[in-house]
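RECORD TYPE: inverse folding
INPUT: structure tokens
STRUCTURE:
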């Protein structure tokens, strides 16, 4: 019978979700309609119930209590996915909207939108490579041969005996000048970390290809496809290129945490930098060419000099043809297509999103934009912010934070801004003006886009480096920016009914959206953010005693999360304490904000069923406080394919994000009446905020 009940619940949830998606597809969201409202509420309640496993004691393992059935229904291994989670679903929903937009047949009205017309032409150019590989390869070779040639292409000519004249530093400079492409040496113009009113030049390590096994396989396959190399030769050349990169990366600092940031960042007069590397290449000529200027800045920042010192040694010992091959392959990386892809629309949608992320985000958002959602989000942000201010003004942190540090924290907190990434103010006309997109030439299109982006930086020293990284533009979670002291909200988060709706109980909103906002806010005060002030400048505003106590508490988290077992190996969590600090502080602030709203807004609490309590789901047996914690835990319901469980990034695995933060929170134990000493209510708790 239990199995039958479970399957019935799942069927109900599926039917309700189909109704909800039908309404969403048609944009019919009149929540004043009782039927629509009932579908929305019952769908959410069915989802909550479907993922839970009531057989689990919540005081033993709250993640399994809240999410055990997610692992059964959304198994990553069964679905043959890297992972499954709410954020992937949210991202996929946005990508589905983007795909529909890109594949939409253009009406006369659409044709008037010249920007969208060009974006669709780019998308079609990517799709065209599937059936026109020969033209794609020809265009690719035409592009990269402006800068050199691969050794494996001219191997029969014994070319390597003649390649000592390859001027690698001038090629790198031209790539930076033309495309903003950093190879071997990153060249960035960003705000001065000590004075945000001016920009500075930074030299340091670039982003690397990363020699993981799947990367090796992908590159070898691409070499075979483009250059018709035998598989064994392609693999040999791939390993040679990636081994060169591995030698470069060996010189970089292994721990790039903020405690070492100021040590890694050194400010030098320009002549001193030129002299420092004079034996390896002409730094001044390199920078003048890359920046298209005859006047270099008087001072620059060198970031991670250990990398730069090792770089000089590696370049001195490396074969010239390997350096050239590496530079050219990094150049190709932007242009490569995966001929083995099973879904060309998805692949080309991702590529289009990479180059037109802001515009697509802006256009797609029009289809579901809701001013009520935006206003609700802004009000929630203010409530979360006020909760932190109350904590700083009260005695919450008096046992470890000095009054001076608390005042400095308040000063920074007041200056944190919330930014919705709607891109309403973006000048898309400037970018698209004179940008020619050929629906049959994918390679030429990418080159034109890169050239256009760099052409807009007419004064390269005055304008910050352009970035093609679409992480921020099209991400699906908020992002805190230390240099700007802002929290950027992607429009994906505002998709209706993904995490929240105006008709949901407020507990779900505070526990999900509220938590995410609080998490990013705490990043401004974690072991990285606490080194920046309200202007986004590196600043030491902590006294020694407060800093020492912060570090002691940070180590408590490190020890706690290092005890967690993942598979058969103990997780090395040392690098991710910023995320753990943010998780732990955020759940307490989100709950404090909800508690304040619940106890001060005079919301009715019917006791005898005389009226509906809007703060609970009538079909679920949980009060609003329990619903808050269940909603938080289910935010992190997920499953990772066994093959990829070691690739978790800087965050702790979802299971421990829930268990770790709630086991440190006395309020959780009170709500679920967890006895002292139980798994979810240990006697020792780690707390900073």
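DESIGNED SEQUENCE:
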């Amino acid at each position: 019978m239990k199995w039958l009940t479970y399957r019935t619940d799942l069927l109900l949830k599926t039917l309700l979700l189909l109704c909800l998606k039908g309404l969403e597809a048609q944009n019919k969201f009149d929540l004043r309609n009782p039927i629509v409202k009932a579908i929305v509420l019952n769908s959410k309640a069915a989802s909550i119930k479907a993922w839970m496993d009531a057989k689990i004691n919540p005081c033993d393992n709250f993640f399994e209590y809240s999410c055990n059935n997610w692992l059964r229904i959304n198994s990553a291994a069964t679905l043959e996915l890297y992972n499954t989670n709410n954020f992937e679903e949210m991202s996929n929903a946005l990508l589905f909207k983007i795909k529909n937009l890109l594949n939409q047949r253009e009406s006369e009205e659409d044709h008037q939108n010249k920007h969208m017309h060009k974006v669709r032409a780019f998308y079609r150019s990517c799709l065209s490579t599937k059936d026109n590989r020969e033209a794609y390869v020809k265009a690719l070779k035409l592009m990269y041969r402006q800068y050199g040639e691969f050794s494996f292409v001219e191997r029969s000519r014994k070319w390597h005996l003649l390649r000592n004249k390859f001027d690698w530093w001038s090629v790198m400079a031209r790539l930076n000048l033309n495309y903003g492409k950093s190879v071997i040496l990153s060249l960035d113009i960003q705000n001065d970390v000590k004075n945000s009113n001016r920009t500075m030049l930074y030299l340091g390590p670039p982003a690397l290809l990363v020699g993981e096994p799947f990367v090796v396989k992908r590159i070898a396959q691409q070499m075979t496809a483009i250059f018709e190399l035998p598989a064994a030769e392609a693999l040999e050349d791939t390993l040679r290129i990636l081994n060169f990169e591995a030698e470069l990366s060996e010189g970089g600092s292994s721990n790039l945490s903020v405690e070492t940031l100021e040590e890694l960042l050194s400010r030098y007069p320009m002549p001193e930098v030129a002299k420092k590397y004079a034996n390896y290449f002409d730094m001044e000529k390199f920078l003048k060419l890359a920046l298209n200027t005859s006047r270099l800045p008087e001072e620059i920042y060198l970031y991670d000099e250990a990398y730069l010192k090792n770089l000089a040694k590696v370049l001195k010992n490396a074969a010239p043809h390997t350096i050239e091959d590496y530079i050219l392959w990094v150049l190709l990386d932007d242009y490569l297509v995966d001929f083995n892809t099973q879904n060309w629309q998805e692949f080309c949608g991702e590529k289009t999103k990479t180059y037109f992320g802001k515009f697509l985000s802006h256009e797609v958002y029009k289809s579901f934009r809701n001013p009520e959602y935006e206003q609700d989000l802004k009000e929630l942000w203010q409530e979360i912010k006020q909760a932190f201010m109350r904590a700083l003004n009260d005695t919450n942190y008096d046992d470890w934070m000095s009054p001076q540090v608390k005042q400095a924290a308040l000063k920074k907190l007041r200056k944190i801004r919330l930014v919705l990434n709607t891109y309403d103010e973006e000048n898309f006309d400037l970018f698209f003006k004179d940008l020619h997109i050929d629906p049959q030439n994918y390679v030429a299109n990418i080159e034109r886009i890169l050239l256009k982006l760099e052409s807009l930086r007419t004064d390269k020293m005055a304008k910050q480096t352009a970035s093609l990284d679409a992480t921020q533009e099209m991400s699906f979670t908020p992002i805190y920016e230390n240099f700007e002291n802002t929290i950027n909200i992607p429009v994906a988060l505002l998709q209706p009914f993904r995490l929240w709706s105006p008709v949901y109980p407020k507990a779900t909103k505070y526990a999900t959206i509220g938590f995410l906002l609080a998490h990013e806010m705490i990043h401004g005060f974690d072991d990285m953010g606490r080194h920046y002030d309200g202007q986004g400048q590196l600043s030491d505003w902590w006294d020694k005693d407060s800093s020492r106590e912060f570090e002691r508490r940070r180590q408590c988290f490190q020890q706690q999360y290092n005890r967690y077992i993942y598979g058969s190996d103990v997780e090395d969590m040392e690098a991710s304490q910023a995320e753990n600090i943010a998780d732990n502080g955020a759940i307490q602030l989100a709950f404090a904000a909800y508690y304040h709203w619940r106890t001060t807004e005079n919301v009715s609490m019917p006791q005898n069923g005389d009226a509906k309590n809007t703060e609970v789901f009538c079909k679920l047996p949980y009060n609003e406080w329990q619903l808050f914690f269940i909603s938080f835990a289910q935010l992190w319901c997920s499953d990772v394919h066994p093959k990829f469980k070691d690739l978790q990034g800087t965050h702790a695995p979802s299971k421990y994000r829930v268990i770790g933060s709630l086991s440190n929170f006395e309020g959780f134990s009170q709500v679920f009446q967890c006895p002292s000493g139980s798994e979810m209510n240990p006697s020792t708790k780690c707390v900073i905020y």
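NOTES: Residues 1-9, 466-472 have pLDDT under 50 and may be disordered.
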